[in-house]
Structure to design on (305 residues):
């Protein structure tokens, strides 16, 4: 695989990602239709009636969830990662690197945050120029030279420029909805286990099965969004700095120690340049990985040299 026609790849990937985003609400509505189909014992007429009646409530519920998550995502992510504002006077080196790249690209400079952890990692987030930010671990600031750190920052700025961060936030919100519904179904089973109504237990089991299947499908949709965009961010970072070898070297160092202890949530972990929760040697890590293997990313970057 070679990076030929970067802008075409970005456009193609954006079209693909749009289809994935359409798939999330389609999957949600499909989940409710399947639930009613089995709950109504395969009676199509009753299924259609209950499904149509439920659509306004589903859309209102999802809309409220989405608005709350959309407006509070920055605070939520900062709390989940332990990131704090990095003042210019505290580290002019980092600010100069970010500012110079933004001026070069004609971008509004994002806010800069630091995660007090000696591991090496970084991520970008935000939905608009007012909320875009880059967070760097203390370890990545201290252990990378200027060219390597510039490559990492360029990678994260590419995520912002390509609107990857907005897309990932949307996918995280939708996956959170499926996770919540699956958890509610499991809670219903636990608290309703003593119920004597046979039909009630049957409906709860249907809800558990349907929400669990849809939750796993939503995870794969999220993985499809996350994996491909890391390659493009690497390519964009290399193009921005004209130093692909520097980003490749940075990825080698990151691969040795990217496990940030403060990051406990898998949905937030996928936003980092390397997933800080990943178990690199596990078979299932490759199957459910949110990021492509760093070795492949390095091999592709070295094609630029």
């Amino acid at each position: 695989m070679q990076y030929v026609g970067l802008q075409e790849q970005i456009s193609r990937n954006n079209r693909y990602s749009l289809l994935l985003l359409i798939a999330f609400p389609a999957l949600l509505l499909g989940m409710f239709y399947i639930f009613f189909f089995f709950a109504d014992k395969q009676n199509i007429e009753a299924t259609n009636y209950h499904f149509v009646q439920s659509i306004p409530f589903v859309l209102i519920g999802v809309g409220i969830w989405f608005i709350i998550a959309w407006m509070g995502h920055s605070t939520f992510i900062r709390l989940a990662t332990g990131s704090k504002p990095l003042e210019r006077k505290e580290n002019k080196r980092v600010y100069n690197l970010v500012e110079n790249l933004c001026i070069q690209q004609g971008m509004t400079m994002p806010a800069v945050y630091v995660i007090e952890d000696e591991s090496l990692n970084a991520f970008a987030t935000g939905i608009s120029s007012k909320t875009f930010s880059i967070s760097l671990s203390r370890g990545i600031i201290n252990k990378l030279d200027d060219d390597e750190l510039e490559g990492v920052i360029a990678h994260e700025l590419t995520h912002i420029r390509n609107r990857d961060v907005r897309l990932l936030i949307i996918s995280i919100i939708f996956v959170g909805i499926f996770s919540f519904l699956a958890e509610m179904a499991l809670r219903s089973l636990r608290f309703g286990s003593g119920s004597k109504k046979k039909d009630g237990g049957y409906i709860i089991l249907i809800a558990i099965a349907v929400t669990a299947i849809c939750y796993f499908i939503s995870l794969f949709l999220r993985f499809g969004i996350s994996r491909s965009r890391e390659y493009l961010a690497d390519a964009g970072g290399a193009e921005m700095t004209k130093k692909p070898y520097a980003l490749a070297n940075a990825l080698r160092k990151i691969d040795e120690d990217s496990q940030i202890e403060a990051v406990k949530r898998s949905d937030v972990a996928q936003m980092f340049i390397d997933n800080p929760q990943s178990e690199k040697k596990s078979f299932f890590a490759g199957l459910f990985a949110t990021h492509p293997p760093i070795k492949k990313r390095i091999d592709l970057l070295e094609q630029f040299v």
Q: What stands out?
A: The chain is about 70% helix and 5% strand. The first strand starts at residue 83 and ends at 85.
